[in-house]
Amino acid sequence: MSKKTALIIAAVLFSVAVLFALSVKIAGTIIGTDDSGFVNKEGVGLVEVKGMILDSKETIRQLRYFLKKDSIKAIVLRVDSPGGIVAPSQEIYSEVKKFAARKKIIVSMGSLAASGGYYISAPSTLIYANPGTITASIGVILKLSNIESLMDKIGIKSYTLKTGKYKDSGSPVRAFSAEDRAMLQSVIDNTHEQFVKAVAEGRKLPIEDVRKIADGRILSGEQAKEHKLVDRLGTLQDAIEEAGRLAGISGEPELLLPPKKKVNYMDLLVEGAEGTFNGPLGRATSGMKMMYEAE
User: Considering 41, 165, 167, 228, which one is annotated as catalytic?
Assistant: First the structure.
């Protein structure tokens, strides 16, 4: 290879490296989490939980972000959710409880804050609901399907090897036995009792009072207030103003949002691949999930 050719190749590689570094820098500026202008701002933080609760990581990240900010004395947790999977709901509950032990956290319920949406609200400092908010629905649900007859009609046979009689309980390709039902019901009952205890502890209510309404029923915001499941009737703005007062801010507080999460492109590629291969059949065989969810 001639010296001239080597220099040309080196120049091309250097240019590519510079362009790549510049692209990464621009992307980081656009979607990064730089909050240098936020550090000393005083105001009320806002964390939003919208839709199904399927994962807890992002909500916990935002709560911890505001917890670390000395300038933020209170936040509003806006909940508009029918609930979701049990474990993520419990993880967010735990984080809200930790936050409330150190700073004020005011829940503002939107149109729907039921089941898991109520669960994560219970340990907050104060709960606001609109009169027509749909909330409560203290209960657990496990939905199972059976396609055994369909498989017989189309000539498909399924075979299962297992280590115990309960290992495939709830399988969609075999009959649901009385033993299966009893075992799964015991798990649901235990998880329901965890919900009842969490509400009683979070709301500082006698556990028997909670049990009386922990039958899956939904309540309006007005009804929930009568049962002491919420503290006040009011809007998001009312909750923001109350958070400002509790934080010692005079006048209308500035509402501050957490920085956006950095985008990990490798995670996006992995998630995209999972979405490609996890079609309807993949979702059907992904295992059972107990839900704190309002139907």
Answer: 167
Name the nearest CA neighbour of 178 among 191, 166, 188: 166
Q: What is the largest CA-CA distance in the chain?
A: 87
Check residue 293 and report its DSSP letter: E
Q: Does domain 41-268+287-293 have CATH number 3.90.226.10?
A: yes
DSSP string, 249-288: --SSPPEEPPPPPPP-HHHHHHHHHHHHH--HHHHHTS--
Residues whose CB falls within 8 Å of the CB of residue 42, separated by 6 or more in sequence, listed in order: 71, 72, 73, 247, 249, 253, 254
Q: How many CB atoms lie within 10 A of CB 31?
A: 11
169 close to 183: Cβ distance less than 8 angstroms? yes
pLDDT at 275 over 80: no
| pTM assigned to the model | 0.80
Catalytic residue among 89, 115, 137, 171: 115
167 is catalytic: yes
Name which of 288, 84, 290 is nearest 172 in CA terms: 288
Three-state secondary structure call for residue 6:
helix
Ramachandran angles phi, psi of 253, nearest 5° = -75, 150
> Has 115 been annotated as catalytic?
yes
User: How do the domains of the chain map onto residue ranges?
Assistant: 41-268+287-293
- Residue 101: Cβ-neighbour burial (10 angstroms; 0-12, 13-18, 19+): exposed
pLDDT in tens, 6-36: 566 666 666 666 565 555 455 454 444 445 4
Sole residue written with tokens 């900010």: 69
